[in-house]
Structures are given as structure tokens and as C-alpha cells.
Amino acid sequence: MQVIENIKDLSIIIKEFKTEKKTIGFVPTMGFLHDGHISLIKRARLVSDIVVVSIFVNPTQFGPKEDFNAYPRDIKRDTQLCIDAGIDILFMPSVSGMYPEGYLTYINVEKITDMLCGASRPGHFKAVATVVAKLFNIVKPDKAFFGQKDYQQTVIIKRMAADLNMDIDIDVLPTVREPDGLAMSSRNSYLNEEERKAAICLYRSLMKAEEMIKNGEKTTSVIISAMREIIESERLAKIDYINIRDAETLEEIEAIDRKVVIALAVWIGKARLIDNIVI
Ligand code: AMP
Hints:
The protein is built from ten helices and nine strands. Strands 1-4-3-2-5-6 form a six-stranded parallel beta sheet, sandwiched between helices. A three-stranded antiparallel beta sheet has the order 7-8-9. It has helices at residues 7-19, 35-47, 75-84, 95-98, 117-120, 124-139, 151-163, 193-198, 200-214, 220-232; strands at residues 2-4, 24-29, 50-55, 89-91, 143-147, 169-173, 237-246, 260-268, 271-278. The radius of gyration is 19 Å and the shape is globular. By secondary structure, the chain is α/β, with parallel strands linked by helices. Bound molecules: adenosine monophosphate. Adenosine monophosphate binds next to helix 2 and strand 5. Adenosine monophosphate is lined by residues 29-30, 36-37, 39-40, 146-147, 149-150, 173, 175-176, 183-186.
């Protein structure tokens, strides 16, 4: 495995792979890797000649009061996990490499970036779309792998790739969970023992919604109320949003009459956790 920090160095290697007609699979991450990331890497390994993983904690996607400085980092452990997973290139660009002085260009995917997580984190998805587009331009992947855990992100990246004629397959893989159902996340490391127990309320509320729908409930407001009740019964939890949307367009719906995504964001202590299911 090669570890590359310099963008130009990576470009030279990528050019060689392209001449050799090798397919490139790409997994962008912010590091502090867990089994959710590893599942993406394993899929990439299975279907690509060359696997590139990036670790870049992108400062522009964190709000001024958010956790950029506190975001967990462990490059030594991540490097070993990448070696163990058999990847070819670990790309770790610097902030100044990605955003040199004079940087001015951003990607604005309209509408679907303003809702759900975008409503609580203004500018977040503009920064995400921009950094992913930049990484795509540097790595030039045939396929890129994302987790369903960040559902809205996957819808935005697919929209951007289609709208900007990026010739890249976007592969979305299921959310990997802890044995009790909590979605794996680098931010779970913020939770103390009591908060970790409380965090299970996100998954419990999603399972309740799934059960209600299976039993014939169609009205989204009724389902959301039942979810709200589960989360509110947890003293340490504070709801950011609970929403049921069209799974493709993310538009608000009143009845379960198509493929939907049930998504929520909940504060547990210092951690803002998100989760979703598609039904
Ligand atoms: P992050 O490092 O949190 O930016 O995540 C990098 C990629 O891993 C994104 O595509 C995430 O959706 C994905 N990911 C994060 N957590 C999980 C999980 N629990 N299961 C599957 N994919 C995940």
C-alpha cells in the first residue's frame, strides 16, 4: 500500500493506472475507520483493480460551532486497517493542498441540500459536494462507494454526478450497525457509557416506524409522533429532526404511498447522531 499526501504525486500514479486500463474504486472518508468504512472498502476491493481510500477531515463542511477540532483522528490505526483490507493507495491530502490560497470554487446542488441535515447545518452539503467533486477529479474513479448511513449525502452525490456528467458509478452500501442496532459512526466515540445506552433510541424509533408501516399505518405524521415519543422518553436525547421523505427526491410526503426514507438526527450529549431506513 502506498500512502500519498501530495495531490500531484497521486495524479501521476492515477495516470499510469489509466494507461494500463485498470479500474479504480474509491472510498472517501474522514478517517477514524470502523466496520462501516471497511464494508465499503471490501466492496471496492471486490469490484476494482485498484482501490483508493482517502482520509480528509474537510474543514469547510464543519460549521463555526461544530466539532472540526474535536473530530476523532487516529492515522496510525487507520493506516493499519487499510493495509489489512488490502487497499492500494491511502490518500491523505493536506488542507492547504486541497484549498490553496485564492480558492474560490464551490458546488451548489440546489434544494436537496437545504432540507433535513442541511437545514441544521447551513453550507454543510455545499462543502461536501465540493470536496467530493474535487476528490473525484483527483482520483478519477470508475466507481465510488458511499454508506446509506448518510442517506441525504448519497442522494446529493448521485444528483451532482448525474447533473455534471461525471462518468462515475455511485454505489451505496447498507448501514453497518453495532450488535444492539446503533449505526456505526466515528462520532459514537464522543458518547460516555450512559449516553451510549441512550443512543439506541434512534434505532428503536426506526424499528417502531417499520413495524407500524408493516401493520398498515400510512400517515407519516402518526408514525413520526410515535418515533418522537420513543426519543423523548430518553432523558439524554434531544431531537434535531425526524422526517419521512420520498426516497428519490427527498420531498416531504403525507402518506406512505411509495419508496420512502425515514431519517432522523438526534443530539446525545455532544454527539449529533443520524440514522435512517428506506422502506
Ligand atoms: P465518514 O468518514 O463519516 O465521512 O464516512 C465515510 C463513508 O463511510 C461515507 O460514505 C459514510 O456514509 C460511510 N459510513 C459511515 N458510517 C457507516 C456505517 N455505519 N455503515 C456504512 N457506511 C458508513
